[in-house]
Write a structure and sequence with these properties.
Elements (H helix, E strand, L loop, with lengths): L2 H15 L4 H6 L10 E2 L3 E2 L13 E2 L3 E2 L14 E2 L3 E2 L14 E2 L3 E2 L14 E2 L3 E2 L14 E2 L3 E2 L14 E2 L3 E2 L14 E2 L3 E2 L14 E2 L3 E2 L10 H7 L4 E2 L3 E2 L1
Parallel strand pairs: 1-3, 2-4, 3-5, 4-6, 5-7, 6-8, 8-10, 9-11, 10-12, 12-14, 13-15, 14-16, 15-17, 16-18, 17-19, 18-20
Length: 240
């Protein structure tokens, strides 16, 4: 779509709504008012060429930034009431320390992301699939539901005492050599293709099934694995 055509669309919306859109101002470096920075519903900026977002942005609903491949960072003080969707933001390297959001955090294929802020609180699920530069999860991480880390091939460390309300999917985390003491998983635990994982920690608690296909753990019998983690437990079956 040509730029002139896009401008006509925004001009029409301006005439209809009585103001220019947040996106138009952002893309054209026009000044933003205090009212512009307080979004009452959802804000969808996905598939745009934005490089950054303004400080003081507050979104009452969800914030969608999928495929914003030029986005390198998020502003300090960002508050999102719902979901934060950052899928395929391949230039994003980190998140602000004071980031607040109420729903899920989806960072699928954020290949430049190297770390997450300490004491991060996730109101629903945390998705980090194919975050290939990520080497660890932070201390103080709290996730209400599940964590998906499929294909995080450089992940080496999970914090001691990590407790997850839902599933923990670590499939194909090839560099992971151990799981932390005090790990509690409210759903299934998927360790398929974790080729460097040779043992499980004592006290491990899994409230559903354990998956160990194509790992060194396959050599152990089910009874040996359950003995290995005592006084912990696996409620479900062990799949290999």
């Amino acid at each position: 779509m040509e730029k002139e055509t896009i401008k006509k669309i925004f001009d029409f919306l301006e005439e209809k709504e009585g103001k220019k859109s947040f996106l138009w101002k952002l893309l054209n470096d026009e000044p933003l008012t205090e009212d512009d920075l307080h979004i009452k519903g959802n804000l969808d900026l996905g598939f745009t060429k934005i490089i950054s977002l303004p400080e003081g942005l507050k979104v009452k609903g969800s914030l969608y930034l999928r495929d914003c491949t030029n986005l390198t960072s998020l502003p300090e003080g960002l508050k999102v009431g719902g979901k934060l969707d950052l899928r395929n933001c391949t230039s994003l390297k980190s998140l602000p320390k004071d980031l607040k959001f109420g729903g899920s955090l989806d960072l699928t294929n954020c290949t430049s992301l190297t770390s997450l802020p300490k004491d991060l609180k996730v109101g629903e699920s945390l998705v980090l699939e194919d975050c290939t530069s990520l080497t660890s999860l932070p201390e103080g991480l709290e996730v209400k539901y599940g964590i998906i880390l499929i294909g995080c091939k450089n992940l080496k460390y999970l914090p001691i005492g990590l407790k997850i309300g839902g599933a923990l999917d670590l499939e194909n985390c090839k560099s992971l050599t151990s799981l932390p003491e005090g790990l509690e998983v409210g759903g299934y635990l998927d360790l398929n293709k974790c080729k460097s994982l040779t043992s499980l920690p004592k006290g491990l608690k899994v409230d559903n099934n354990l998956h160990i296909k194509k790992t060194p753990l396959e050599k152990f019998s089910d009874d040996e694995i359950r003995d290995m983690i005592k006084p912990g437990f696996i409620v479900g079956k062990i799949f290999r």
